[in-house]
Specification:
Distance between the termini: 27 Å
Shape: globular
Order of helices and strands: EHEHEHEHEEHHE
Radius of gyration: 16 Å
Oligomer: single chain
Largest sheet: 7 strands, mixed
CATH architecture: 3-Layer(aba) Sandwich
Structural class: alpha/beta
Number of strands: 7
Strand order of the largest sheet: 3-2-1-4-5-7-6
CATH superfamily: LmbE-like
CATH topology: Rossmann fold
Number of domains: 1
Helix content: 25-40%
């Protein structure tokens, strides 16, 4: 059975990551693919999770790690925006987050935005998903999956990636030494998820997204 491929080459893509590494987990391979295709990519990390850094690391270690990870993917340092909202307390700062997103929209003017899917149960992810939908009314919105937070997932959109894109995603995630202990950060888990998503469209690898809004 053949699948229908839509050629989509956004001018500017924006990644909304509630916490450092969410963007790499959710769409790291797609980031690598779009960068390769000439898309200008911007990345916003809303929290560096100082309260959650494992013992033995400096409190702002994740700020250094997200710089290394996004650079590994090929995102220019000038296109990385780091905020310091307190982890697990985004609901207390909902209006501030929205105002921040509106400012970022004016600065970046993206035509594609990656953000957490609407079925994500993490409270910080829910705020970014909801306020991102409000802030970016003229852009295509793709909700990425982080399986450990998703009770369900609508695989309506898949971005096909290749071995090189997946290797860049793995290399970027390897920059997060503070998160290396997490079982879902292991190469086998990441590679098997990409393989299972690729199987949906008879490709070797893919990343799955919820299509929240399509603007063509």
């Amino acid at each position: 059975m053949d699948h229908v491929a839509i050629q989509f080459k956004p001018r500017r893509a924006l990644i909304l990551a509630p916490h450092t590494d969410d963007g790499e987990f959710g769409c790291g391979g797609s980031i690598a693919r779009f960068l390769e295709d000439g898309t200008e990519v911007f990345y916003v990390a809303f929290s560096i999770c100082e309260e959650s850094v494992p013992e033995g690391f400096k409190k702002d270690a994740l700020a250094d790690e997200v710089r290394q990870a996004t650079s590994t993917l090929g995102i220019p340092p000038k296109n990385l925006i780091i905020r310091s909202y307190p982890v697990r307390r985004f609901p207390d700062h909902r209006q501030e987050v929205l105002e921040d997103l509106v400012r970022i929209r004016a600065e970046v003017s993206p035509d594609l935005v990656f953000l957490p899917c609407s079925h994500d149960i993490h409270q910080d992810h829910q705020v970014i998903a909801a306020e991102g939908l409000r802030a970016f009314k003229t852009a295509t919105l793709l909700g990425y999956e982080v399986p450990w937070n998703n009770l369900t997932m609508n695989f309506s959109t898949l971005v096909v990636i290749n071995e090189g894109h997946l290797e860049k995603k793995l290399a970027a995630l390897a920059c997060y030494k503070t998160q290396g202990h997490r079982y879902y950060a292991k190469e086998g888990m990441i590679r098997s998820l990409a393989q299972s998503r690729g199987l949906l469209v008879w490709q070797k690898y893919a990343e799955a997204f919820q299509l929240i809004r399509l603007v063509v």
